[in-house]
Every structure is written in structure tokens, then in C-alpha cells.
């Protein structure tokens, strides 16, 4: 049986995995990028600039909201969206915690490329 720390870790990883899955779509990734640059944006304005319909953007926003990546605020008839800072912070921390792996992998790749280039001479 898993202890509490292991359960919390697994739950946190599952949440981050859902968030990465949501970000795996290019339109959703672009929506997050835009919200990060512009701050709070009305849903209607987010539809502009994408080669998909407003209802499709709305569905993408729903996926991002369900994944905890965006916050939604209602103001009269408008729905305003912004990046959920805590979720983005958790993703950044997860990425930083795996930095040693990426750096090691990239260093090995650099060495392999250098070896290949040297053997071609």
C-alpha cells in the first residue's frame, strides 16, 4: 500500500500529466501563450486570430479550465479568461525538478554529435 507522500506525489503527477495533455494541442498551447502575454481576455476576443470557429475555441477553453490551467470570471454577459498562476507554477517546478535529466541527456547528445562529426573527418 502507498504511503501518504507517495499518494500525494502520484496525485500531483496525474494532475500535471492532464495539464501537459491539455497543452499538447497547438491551439490550446497558443491560447495559454496569449493569456500569459495579455492577461485576462474575453472569450470572444480569444476567438480572433485562430483558424477555428468561436465554438471550437470555447471547447478548447473548457478543456483548459477543466485541467486547471485557466481561470474563468463572469462579468455580465462576458466570460473572461486568465492563466491560473498556481498551475503554471507547479508545471514550472516540475520541469525544473527534472532539469538534471534534460541537461544530462542533452550533454550526451552533444557528445554523440561531436563524435559523429569527428568520425566523418
TrEMBL record:
Domain named HTH arsR-type: residues: 8-103
Extent of the signal sequence: none
Gene3D superfamilies per UniProt: Winged helix-like DNA-binding domain superfamily/Winged helix DNA-binding domain
InterPro entries: ArsR-like_HTH, HTH_ArsR_DNA-bd_dom, WH-like_DNA-bd_sf, WH_DNA-bd_sf
GO molecular function, one term: DNA-binding transcription factor activity
Domain of life assignment: Bacteria
PANTHER family recorded: SLL0088 PROTEIN, TRANSCRIPTIONAL REGULATORY PROTEIN
Protein name, as recorded: Transcriptional regulator
Lineage: Bacteria, Pseudomonadati, Pseudomonadota, Alphaproteobacteria, Rhodobacterales
